[in-house]
Amino acid sequence: MERLWIANIAPGTTDDELKALVKKYAPEIECTEIQREEGTGSRPAALMSFSNKKFDSLGKLSLRLNGMYWKERALSCSTMIA
To answer: For position 51, what pLDDT does the model report?
Structure first.
């Protein structure tokens, strides 16, 4: 299963806000799960799982979001296979 890793999320960002961000740039895929990784709290991250994705749709989304300035932070994104 391929998943999307988003790091450096602004503290206090909700799951609904993350889903809306992804939906804006990839409306054809649906987020089915968000696993939060708080770490030390300075660079919170989330591992997102999806359904209805086509081949490489997460790769393209990762490229689009990586480095994007959102909620006063530069996001760091990559895909993971688990």
So the answer is: 85
